[in-house]
Design brief:
Elements: H1 3-24, E1 48-49, E2 56-70, E3 75-92, E4 95-109, E5 124-125, E6 130-138, E7 141-147, E8 175-184, E9 188-195, E10 206-215, E11 218-227, E12 232-243, E13 247-256, E14 273-289, E15 294-311, E16 326-338, E17 341-352, E18 357-369
Antiparallel strand pairs: 1-2, 2-3, 2-18, 3-4, 4-5, 4-6, 6-7, 7-8, 8-9, 9-10, 10-11, 11-12, 12-13, 13-14, 14-15, 15-16, 16-17, 17-18
């Protein structure tokens, strides 16, 4: 056998084997197309479509380490908070359909109070995660657990909360289960809600509302709330306006006809008075942008004729005759050395007359947002 015959024979054998293999080959099915996550730019940055739906989802939150101090207790405390915000939005024939869920937990040292005393194996606590807010919206309808409309409304823009600090001075912050409606116009807004106050002895909820508008860049608004358990009401008139390109001013005035959750509520731990609502109060706060990474604010508040919930454990006074007044000043400094990282410091001094007492409180936090 010569070389030529050997090569021809090998080629024929290879052809036969390959032909048999081809006849026996298994044809793999085509992979189904995969729908990759798409950016949803209809509602701003951070939203993406849930695959297979027209619902846009956004996930945000922060991790915060905070240290507080109080001159009355001559001590400090530390807390670490983690928060996760989830939002789902889509347009419908009835308007925007929105769901909002805020989940958070706090962790910190155990109090050495005899019940949760720290031991060598137990120096802190792991906070249980809870939903801090959860509500839905369809068009103007809103239902769920969030701030009531005396504090803030979702369509009110710059008409919400108190001063420029995290503490906000005294402005009656509260949350509740509620159902309400938000009305919006070109340069005006209004909101009303019925709020569950937890009073099992009554079918009647609390009612809160807010109305305002934007005039030449100035937001002016009025908010009111009726506390059915106390059968008292509170009202707030406010203004929020920019001053130049770097400043912002907040002014708020309050009146309440008796103890109510809808007022400029305040208290001072360790005093014989359990202070709740002043008959009237005025609050002012100014924030200035010092640079691209630094902001500072200063604020103050005066409150007159507190309705004392109790005095030395006795029955409520029931009228604005306590003669107890208070004033408070505060300041803050906010530094953002890089995007999404904030270093904040705040300090507040509060003083009550009638020998009720005074206190200096403050805090510093480090916060990474996403």
């Amino acid at each position: 056998m010569n070389i030529k015959s050997l090569l021809l024979g090998s080629a024929a054998a290879l052809f036969a084997v390959s032909g048999a293999s081809a006849a026996d080959a298994i044809i793999a099915a085509e992979p189904e197309p995969v729908e990759y996550v798409r950016v949803c730019d209809a509602f701003g940055a951070g939203y993406f479509y849930i695959p297979g739906t027209e619902t846009c989802l956004k996930i945000s939150g922060f991790v915060r380490f905070r240290v507080d101090f109080n001159s009355n207790s001559d001590s400090y405390s530390s807390t670490t908070r983690g928060r996760l915000n989830i939002q789902a939005k889509e347009d419908t024939e009835l308007g925007l359909l929105h769901a909002y869920l805020r989940i958070q937990a706090d962790g910190g040292p155990r109090a050495e109070d005899g019940n949760t005393a720290a031991t060598s194996n137990d120096y802190g606590y792991d906070g249980n995660a809870v939903y801090d807010q959860a509500y839905l919206e369809l068009g103007g309808l809103i239902a769920g657990y969030t701030e009531n409309t005396f504090v803030s409304s979702k369509n009110g823009g710059a008409s919400g909360f108190g001063s420029h600090t995290d503490g906000g001075l005294s402005y009656g912050y509260s949350q509740s289960n509620q159902i309400g409606y938000n009305f919006s116009g070109a340069n005006w807004f209004a909101a009303i809600s019925a709020n569950d106050d937890g009073d099992a002895a009554s079918y009647m909820p609390d009612f809160t509302g807010r109305v305002g508008g934007v005039f030449g860049g100035m937001t002016i608004y009025v908010a009111a709330g009726y506390d059915q358990s106390a059968e008292n009401f509170g009202v707030k008139l406010g203004l929020n306006t920019d001053i130049g390109s770097a400043g912002n001013l907040i002014v708020q005035g309050y009146y309440a006809d008796g103890p109510t959750r809808y007022g400029a509520n305040n208290s001072l731990n360790g005093s014989p008075f359990t202070l709740f609502t002043p008959e009237w109060s005025i609050l002012g706060s100014y924030q200035h942008t010092l640079s691209s990474t630094l902001k500072a604010s200063i604020g103050g508040q005066y409150s007159a004729d507190y309705y004392a919930a109790s005095v030395n454990g006795q029955a409520p006074l029931g009228s604005a005759s306590s003669g107890v007044d208070s004033w408070a000043v505060e300041g803050s400094l906010i530094w953002t050395p890089v995007a999404n990282f904030e270093v904040r410091g705040e300090v507040k001094y509060t003083d009550f007359n009638q020998n009720v007492g005074d206190a200096t409180t403050g805090m510093v936090w480090l916060q990474r947002s996403f």
